[in-house]
Amino acid sequence: MRRCCAVWKAYDTTDSHPIGCFGMKLVGCVAGPFQTNCWMVINSETASVTVIDPGYGAAKIVDDYCQEQQLTVGEILLTHGHIDHMRDAGVLATTHGCTVSIHPDDAFMLTDPSGGVSSQAMALHDVGSMVKVPADSLQQLTHEQQITIGEEQFTVRHAPGHSPGSVLLVGEEICFSGDVLFKGSIGRTDLPGSDWSAMEQTLANQVLTLPDNLMILPGHGPTTKMQAERLGNPYLRKYQS
Ligand SMILES: [Zn+2]
Ligand SMILES: [Zn+2]
């Protein structure tokens, strides 16, 4: 597989910057007031990209990148329904006529973002001017569903706690962990719809069962390895036997 270092430099601006480079055709940028990681996974056979978690401002970055690289936006996947991860999903879906997939337990946030975040977060993401995801573009991500992202196979793991419909997208080499697992931390559980006991179940049954060699690509902050989190993440230690 071609490495993608060359394209990172295009995003080294004040508004967005590269956060990693991997063997697969994967481009990441940071968008919006909460510095949310947006990922583009490229399928070179179809010249299309899967966009994961397009936050506020990500649509322009994705559009510019796709124009430059002569790619189309094939689909959008959301790790969960919080505004900082889905703010630009509607405008991308409308512009490109592509589907938006989310776990059904978080789908309500696409029409009512206040169901998952504070009013301050809504204001920071300028919800008033947000293009909503068209109802007919919605698709579901469900537990243990097999999906193709780029040219790789992934399994969906339902991972509630931070939000009711959070998912992990687990591939052979990488895992898009949304706001479930971060480097050295986990997602907060004090938001509307959060559930600490569900998070405990998720950590024990869905996170700690991930293989050590997985690269973790979280919804915020730097990437990490599952092994490093198993050993050093204080939130994971207590669940290990
Ligand atoms: Zn979140
Ligand atoms: Zn987030």
TrEMBL record:
Cited Gene3D superfamilies: Ribonuclease Z/Hydroxyacylglutathione hydrolase-like
Q: What class of enzyme is it?
A: hydrolase
Q: According to its UniProt record, what is one Pfam family this protein matches?
A: Lactamase_B
User: Which molecular function term from Gene Ontology is one that the record holds?
Assistant: metal ion binding
- What InterPro entries would the database entry show? MBL_Glyoxalase_II, Metallo-B-lactamas, RibonucZ/Hydroxyglut_hydro
* EC number(s) recorded for this UniProt protein: 3.-.-.-
Per UniProt, residues of the Metallo-beta-lactamase domain are 35-220
- SUPFAM superfamilies, A to Z: Metallo-hydrolase/oxidoreductase
- This protein's UniProt keywords: Hydrolase, Metal-binding, Zinc
UniProt entry tagged with the keyword Zinc: yes
Q: Which cofactor does it need?
A: Zn(2+)
Q: Which PANTHER family match?
A: HYDROXYACYLGLUTATHIONE HYDROLASE GLOC
Q: What is this protein called?
A: Putative metallo-hydrolase
Organism, per UniProt?
Answer: Corynebacterium choanae
